[in-house]
Amino acid sequence: MTSTIHKYKSDILLLFIYSILCAYILYCYPIAEFSWDGNYYVKHSISLAPGIRPIGYSLFLKILYKICSSLSFVVYAQFAIYFISVLTFLKALQKAFVFSNIHYCLLGILLLAEPAALYNCFNILSDLLSSCLTLCYISTLILYIIDPKKRYLTIHLALLICCMETRHIALFYPFFSILIFFILLKNKKLLLLSIIATLTVFYVDHSLNLHRNMKAFGVPIHTAFTGWTQANNIMFLLQKDHAQILPVTDPQLKDIHNFCMHYFDTATYADHEINTDWLWDPKSPLEILRKPVEDSLIKHHDQSDIYYHSFYIQAPLYARYATFIQSHYPLLFFKDYMLPNLSTLITPHDGEMMDYYSGPKPESSTLVRYHLKPEDIYCRHQIYKKFINAFNLRYYQFRCLLLLFCFLGIALVWKKLSLLARNFYTIAGLFIISYCLVMLYSSWFMPRYLLPILPFITTFIYLSALSVRGSSGTKKFIE
Predict the structure, then answer these.
(1) How many CB atoms lie within 10 A of CB 149?
(2) Per-residue pLDDT at 97
């Protein structure tokens, strides 16, 4: 017993400190927050019917509900999953670096005390689960590169599926894995096997989603959000520079293009800040075009989710039109969307963290499912709104600045690092860059959207400092 405690004393210390943090957060926010999409996930956890979001988080809620029908149980499970994912990541790092107990604990505390993660542990949204799965996905990628055994690849691919079925942003993960295989796997037979296995998993997952959506909505696409998000983003281009856009002759796109041109010539509604309001606002041209489709479905179909059906029907048209505009006016798209979106990367919007009561309240069906009353949804102290958000923004911006210096520092000592350390920095660095580029193209930034890369930013900075010190002879850190 004593030897076991001694062996895991660092993990026990981390668990103790994390438990104190969790207890304080749960005291301030005793009931889970239902923000914008919380009701959607709870509703779909009952039937797991096709919708506009991945099925993963709804399935997660359904499994937890089978175990315990308390909403508090969901919150406790999310706190526990975050701890387990951080611990998994730390164990993977130990394969590449030589840690003293003090550095293991300090890095662990920094990861576990991540303000955005702690907030999303009591938020009924998919972001926390997605972040945890991503952390484990990268951990298994590190382990597979260090020790390319089939069990690591199998677990890695299983986590890859879980990531893709939890948030759409993870659809680039298979290609990131393949990129890492190309760079770091030297055995050609192993490289080929890994690529084929990854592409097979992606193809199967993609095909299943196509079949599911074709059966439910009559549209063979993986996700409707691709087309809608693309269209949302080009609205900023059309709003600012529609006078520079030439007429479209493609008969499939001519009507939507003429409508958008007329809209921006005459409409008073405008959205100047980068966000996703063009997707949801009733005054948006995308919603104006969707509404007649919804009305036609109401007349001819007997189904409950008419909105989702019309969302899917419009998605391919929006995707084609947005792709046309982006390909013909790439500089305008960069100027009007991607460049302004860079400001949300530097200063992310707080989103749900802004106010515990910012989102819609739980629907009656949600309250009934979890045995709650409207007055049960409350918090004791809004510590994020009053104190933590301001600190979190400065903390995030400080880490971004440090990360830039760390990229430079690691480049300067690259040849002095061990192979295992170089492998980690390659994986972590490329993942941070890839994720940010995909987000910069597809969506604005909020702390919960940044959750999947925040642990890697913190870890890259911390280990870079130790690596640079070790390479200079101040401290032996790298094998």
Answers:
(1) 11
(2) 86
Buried b (16+ CB within 10 A) or exposed e, 118-132: bbbbbbbbbbbbbbb
Q: Kindly give the residue spans of alpha helices, DSSP state H, lying in 371-418.
A: 383, 389-412
Residue 284 falls inside a structural domain: yes
According to the 3-state scheme, what is the secondary structure of 244-255?
A: HCCCCCCHHHHH
Half-sphere exposure of 302 (CA within 13 A, CB side): 0
79 vs 465 pLDDT, higher one: 79
What whole-number distance in Å separates Cα of residue 380 and Cα of residue 375? 13
The DSSP H or E segment spanning 380 is: none
- Residue indicated by tokens 């790439």: 330
Same domain flag for 128 and 45: yes
Which structure tokens are listed for 425? 């920095």
358 plus 296 within the same structural domain = no
Q: Does residue 315 share a domain with residue 428?
A: no
How many domains does the chain divide into?
Answer: 2
Give the tens place of pLDDT for each residue, 222-246.
998 899 999 999 999 999 998 898 8
pLDDT in tens, 286-333: 999 999 998 888 766 555 678 889 999 999 999 999 999 999 999 999
The length of the chain is 479
Q: Residue 321 has what pLDDT? A: 96
Cα separation, 156 vs 201, in Å, equals 11
CB 201 within 8 A of CB 157: yes
From 275, 297, 330, give the residue that closes a domain.
330
Residue 135's domain comprises: 2-168+353-471
**C-beta contacts of 205-210 below 8 A and 24+ residues apart:** 205/161, 205/164, 205/165
Neighbours of 476 (CB within 10 A): 10
Q: What is the pLDDT of residue 54?
A: 93
Q: Are residues 270 and 391 in the same domain?
A: no
Do 240 and 284 fall into the same domain? yes
How far apart are the C-alpha atoms of 143 and 192, rounded to whole Å?
18
Least confident range from 143-147, 272-276, 358-362, 378-382: namely 358-362
Please report whether residue 55 resides in a domain. yes
- 324 and 379 share a domain? no
Residues 445 and 393 in one domain: yes
The pLDDT, as a whole number, for residue 169 is 94
18 in the same domain as 130: yes
In this predicted structure, the answer to whether residue 478 has a pLDDT above a threshold of 70 is no
